Amino acid sequence: MSVDETEKMAVMDRWLGEVCQELGVDRAVLDANTVGLLGLIKDVAHGPSRPGAPVTAFLIGLASGAAAADTAGQVTGVAERLATVTRLVESWDASVTQA
User: Fold this and answer.
1) d(CA 26, CA 45)
2) Looking at residue 41, what is its pLDDT?
3) Distance between alpha carbon 38 and the CA centroid of its chain, in Å?
């Protein structure tokens, strides 16, 4: 990872820590899912829909939050929804959007 990328990741980490604190979100939930979320959002942006990528992340969070009230349930809920949306991205037929 280049120095520039390392710095970007450090800034992201600080930013997300502050957002978690401000919103009262357990940082452990984010830490357990950051790599998966970033990978999925990259895949959505380079696959089905670039502008749909951040909204996809929002929908995963919304569904996960609705599914579980405790931290352990949230970690599992996010992971399950990541897997679901990853399967959707992998099966996406780009020709449908090009027609």
Assistant:
1) 27
2) 95
3) 5
